[in-house]
Write a structure and sequence with these properties.
Elements lengths: L1 H16 L3 E6 L4 H13 L2 E6 L14 E2 L5 H12 L5 E4 L2 H14 L6 H8 L1 H10 L7 E5 L4 H6 L5 E5 L9 E3 L2 H15 L2 H4 L8 E6 L4 E10 L2 E10 L12 E4 L5 H18 L4 E10 L2 E8 L12 E9 L15 E10 H9 L3 E7 L3 E7 L5 E7 L1 H5 L4 E6 L6 E2 L10 E7 L2 H14 L1 E5 L9
Parallel strand pairs: 1-2, 1-4, 2-3
Antiparallel strand pairs: 5-8, 6-7, 6-8, 9-10, 9-12, 11-17, 12-13, 14-15, 14-16, 17-21, 18-20, 18-22, 19-21
Helix pairs in contact: 3-4, 4-5, 5-6
Length: 463
Amino acid sequence: MYFIRSYQTSKLEAALSAPKRLLLVASTTGYQTRVFAEEAARVGYELRLATDRCHVLEDPWGDRAIAVRFDDACGAAETIARECAGALDGIVAVGDRPAWLAALAAERLGLPYNSPGSVEAARNKYLSRERFRAAGLAVPGYRRVALDAAPRGAAADARYPCVLKPLGLSASRGVIRADDAAQFIAAFERIRTLLAAPEVMRLHDGADRYLQVEDFIPGREFALEGLLTDGRLRVLALFDKPDPLDGPFFEETIYTTPSRASAATQAAIVDTTQRAIEALGLTRGPVHAEMRINHAGVWMLEVAARPIGGLCAKTLRFAGAQRVRRAPPSEPGTASRRTPFCASALEDVSLEEVILRHAAGEQIGPLHPVSPASGVMMIPVPHDGVYRGVSGSSEAGAVTGMEEVVITAKPGQALLGLPEGASYLGFLFARGGNAPEVESALRAAHAQLKFEIATALPVRPPG
């Protein structure tokens, strides 16, 4: 009997000490993919990647990544389930389409994650509005219009000002405000052209057979970064967006935290976000929510089942404690059956590390920011063209409060501004004693940068 108990205890101890095994579903070109991989290695997790790289090449980067196609989510989920059966402790996704695939794969693998239905509702603007309205949340007037409809007829039925949105795109891509019928028709045609572009059409997203027309919501805009456990929201940061976002396009630039909104407004934002999460049915993992505030209250724009995009997560650094299991449960018949834990200090922890630890099932205690205030500026593309270079980076980095200047654009890269574009020139990061200081530093640093963007000549068709 002693041998059996010792053997069982040894097995349990080995299981508890074994490295956690996680799957990251992400785009090959995503900014955060490498960050997650680096954080997992530093923490000591085994991280497997599932990315949309070419499936013909045999492991070109030597990382054993699973090649998947986001336009065939069901087939990709079957591939993941076949290759990872019984070999994972958790799953993480970066991006809207990866989150949908992760939900399908987690369902097949029996891993804790959001249900496919909840992720599908979160990433589809029409389904989100339907669920928010059913839950009694404030929603603008909205309707779905077929992409092959006559725009003149749709314009006649619209209330102005209104906003036209593709259902399946993110990051304000294709979102255009119209103040009259002529602007509506022009916006409709512009979105239709965007959705016909090869890089969009190859996604084969059924949602892009439609666009959504919504009443414009005036007011201040905010963003919330959180983490879900069993459907309950844990707020990690609440961001102000100090630049007005009134159209005609909705290019996001500066995020600062902590929010300067009143305590009552912040409480209303958190409460409404929790209700929106419940309406969608999301239960686990990171969420990025965006909302507008005006005299009528909180209006949810979206709750995405993913973390904040791009490199923006670099603005969030935490300190706190992690609850770590240090010994196996007591054997039957002994005095105590309680599982002992102890606290391990966490210092200067990234958002990616918090997400990975949560996905691995670790308990994380209270977290607090490592600096009083922080912020990020997503450097906008001023006009279409070809990127040549930038000057002033050293001067921008020398601005008081600036932490880092990251230029992601590459020489020779074709650039598109909103509403067609899907990328930024780079990111600026600052920290300070309060949010106004951080905002001032970001604006001063941006003023130091001088970008050279050559005008792209139109290509005439042959003949």
